[in-house]
Design goal:
By secondary structure, this protein is an all-alpha fold. It contains 13 helices and no strands.
């Protein structure tokens, strides 16, 4: 049930909302998707009185001299500004380190008492993170290729309910098929896992309408957030955060319903839509951050069960959880950064 609710359901409507807050990008998209009717420019009427060249030049000098200009100074951002690679890496490492220290200090005061992570659990966790990184890479490359081929334009102009239905059937179907396939049948399993990643890429390709700077910052923040929370879950006391499963399921249900609200609420319910948007964005960040912590400890629990022979070792199934956490956090980061950029303009 939690896997179904974790799907990024209302992504197209959320992107439309975020694009409306950035006028330049929304006007560019509307010019591409909608049909434009060209009209001939109006003919200029010649005035019977012409200014002399000297008078015109003196008037331009006078107006340029006493013209009042208002310039806003934007805050310095090492990622957005053109710096070298070393500065960007240091900036990302600083964000990751500060987040790691802060979350570890708040949530991880009780560490493991068994002398550290056993080798089998470490290998199982590393395999899971490896498959998670590969899945995110497939989604990113496929989304970029689909966007360059014009898929995003057709997707954004389609019926949102049709996109929602087809996306849910394809994504959830591939996910259930992948999880039901035993790890011994690795050809079918990896084929369904790849199909799941491709369906996610097809739904996420409209994100490339946003600025590359926003996407880079959102990816950096998502990696820092998930990396620090996963570190806390891996080094915390055994099964310390597994009790979060029930509250997180209730939270993701509320977040999913708030994401569907713009599709059913009337356009006049402005205040209600504002609250649902805040729940979808900021409540979703909190919920899927908690899911990252829960899923990391769930991977370690499955590693202990696999070591005892009670279940099969299957890092592909474990990686699907973390991929969904990454996608949901990343899309919300993109929307928040785009809205902040729209308010500055």
């Amino acid at each position: 049930m939690s896997f179904i609710l974790r799907q990024p359901l209302p992504l197209s409507s959320a992107i439309n909302t975020a694009l409306k807050s950035t006028p330049k990008q929304s006007s560019r998209l509307s010019q591409i998707v909608s049909r434009s009717f060209h009209q001939a420019p109006p003919k200029q009427q010649l005035s019977p009185f012409k200014r002399s060249t000297a008078v015109t030049s003196s008037h331009n000098v006078f107006s340029n001299t006493f013209r009042r200009s208002y310039q806003t100074h934007q805050s310095y951002n090492p990622v957005a500004q053109g710096g070298n690679l070393t500065q960007r890496l240091l900036y990302g490492a600083g964000i990751f380190g500060a987040t790691l220290v802060g979350i570890n200090f708040i949530f991880n005061r009780e560490t493991r008492e068994d002398g550290g992570m056993p080798p089998f659990e470490r290998r199982y966790l590393n395999d899971t993170f490896l498959h998670t990184g590969l899945g995110i890479g497939i989604i990113g490359v496929a989304s970029r290729a689909l966007h360059m081929n014009g898929w995003s334009y057709r997707l954004m102009s389609a019926n949102p309910w049709l996109v929602l239905g087809v996306g849910l059937v394809g994504s959830i179907g591939c996910m259930i098929g992948c999880r039901a396939t035993p790890p011994e049948n690795y050809i079918a399993k990896y084929g369904l896992w790849t199909a799941f990643n491709l369906t996610q890429a097809a739904l996420l390709s409209p994100l490339f309408f946003f600025s590359p700077v926003i996407l880079a910052r959102a990816g950096l923040y998502t990696v820092g957030m998930m990396g620090s929370i996963a570190f806390v879950g891996a080094t915390a006391k055994t099964d310390k955060y597994l009790y979060l499963g029930g509250p997180l399921l209730a939270g993701v249900t509320i977040v999913a319903l708030s994401g569907l609200a713009p599709m059913v609420l009337p356009a006049t319910a402005v205040r209600t839509m504002m609250w649902t948007e805040n729940i979808w964005l900021y409540g979703g960040l909190a919920v899927f951050g908690g899911f990252t912590l829960y899923d990391t400890q769930k991977v370690l629990q499955h590693a202990r069960l696999a070591e005892r022979g009670l279940m099969k070792k299957d890092p592909v199934n474990e990686s699907i959880r973390l991929e969904l956490d990454f996608i949901n956090i990343f899309t919300r980061m993109v929307q928040i950064l785009a809205m902040q950029q729209g308010r500055r303009k």
